[in-house]
Specification:
The protein is an alpha/beta fold. Among the domains are: 127 residues, Methylthiotransferase, N-terminal domain (Rossmann fold, 3-Layer(aba) Sandwich), CATH 3.40.50; 54 residues, Beta Barrel (OB fold (Dihydrolipoamide Acetyltransferase, E2P)). Helix content is 35%, strand content 22%. It is built from 14 helices and 19 strands. Strands 2-1-3-4-5-6 form a 6-stranded parallel sheet, sandwiched between helices. A 5-stranded mixed β-barrel has the order 15-16-17-19-18. Helix 9 packs parallel to helix 10, helix 10 packs parallel to helix 12 and helix 13 packs parallel to helix 14. The radius of gyration is 22 Å and the shape is globular. The mean pLDDT is 94. Bound molecules: S-adenosyl-L-homocysteine, iron/sulfur cluster and FE3-S4 cluster (F3S). The site of FE3-S4 cluster has 13 residues, from helix 1, helix 3 and helix 7.
Amino acid sequence: MSNKLLYIETFGCQMNVNDSERIVSLLADIGYESTTNPAVADMLLLNTCSVRGGAEEKVYNRLANLRIYKRDGKKQIIAVGGCVAQQEGEELLRRLPYVDLVVGTHNLHLLQEMVQAAELGERRSETAFIDKEQRLDLFPSIKGESRLSRFVTVMQGCDNFCSYCIVPYVRGREISRRSADILHEVRQLADDGVREVILLGQNVNSYGLKGESDVSFAKLIRQVAQIDNIERIRFTTSHPKDMSDELIDCFADVSKLSGQIHLPAQSGSDYVLGQMGRGYTRHSYLDKIAKLRSVRPEIAITGDIIVGFPGESDADFEETLSLMEAVCYIDLFSFVYSPRPGTKAASLSDDVSREAKKNRLDRLMALQRQHTGEICSRLVGSVMPVLVEGEGKLPGQVSGKADNGRIVNFAGDVSLIGSFVDVKIVKAYPNSFLGER
Ligand code: SAH
Ligand code: SF4
Ligand code: F3S
């Protein structure tokens, strides 16, 4: 097979990271190898995100930059996928004559034929949402080079319609994959040498709640945990309102379940949470955190916060800081609110000044740095199992992830790659640990 070269840039969340892996594997079947150099590529693909404002402009600017590689006489395919592609569709082809192909979030199964048509000069956009029956058979299962840790998609889409969020519009309705298909895929991955699976979806806690699956997410985790050679299970991302007691109980007795959970609060103010349409209160959020800690005292909690949502007062923001004090996140992703076209919140007046938003974000990030520092320095001296995934930062080091999700570098031989090793933490850095065996 001729070796054509594919250059791909990925933006946004883990769904996109996972979709990019799938794109690489789909295009490998029709003769494309990956390259990190856009200048030599036969195809350039941007896998885009539209969760915050300015995203569309960024994509247009990046495409304009990539265009320089499409020189006269060179047949180079320029493709756009992901959430901006879903949102803009044909408009991208209309506005940018050098774009050949636009593939929406439900249409990756068409990508191979679209690329083959583009090789012959066709320009095409496919962004139709497809119905549930067909989607059940199109859940990605990724082939490709073997790895120790793999995503396994368990559900797609989102029906929550949080008032600020574009995701339900660009990813479509929520659907849970059949549990038998998930378990089959995990078994295959285990046979291929995978040791850790990350169960993936926009809102994994609502897995099975819409009736397409016979089991709950908690039961699914228990079934995955039965599979030999899978030694660690993670999941992302969780919505607090659907975090059931049954799921919390898994942290008590499923030892393979990782000691880290991403549980975005978005705000600590009940007024703002109500306006966001999140479906929980500060109290019920903190109650779930307390339950998690009662069954797994050491659990590491990460989250997302939005500052400057319309109507957020100084007092509301103080509630967010106090929620952070109560939770003590090991890591926090914080964002300034940005209105997204078509969402409910876009019709509210964006009334928090730019300075106030910046000031709140700065204060929040300073508090978070303090919390990350405190938690991580407390962990110095402790011993934790690390799944060694590759070579470390420095020569003679290997690197892997601890149970709490943090990266650990330590002196060791590459023969350790693929195994779990007990490592003593000797130093905490802002984004990683230094350990020793
Ligand atoms: N499904 C995930 C979130 C996906 S979007 C969940 O519910 O946890 C990732 C994060 O982006 C959200 O948690 C939120 O904090 C942030 N976000 C989403 N829309 C936003 C907007 N309009 N402005 C600012 N941040 C936003
Ligand atoms: Fe967006 Fe809310 Fe759905 Fe998360 S749960 S993807 S924040 S609508
Ligand atoms: Fe972005 Fe789409 Fe994910 S909007 S956050 S890439 S679902």
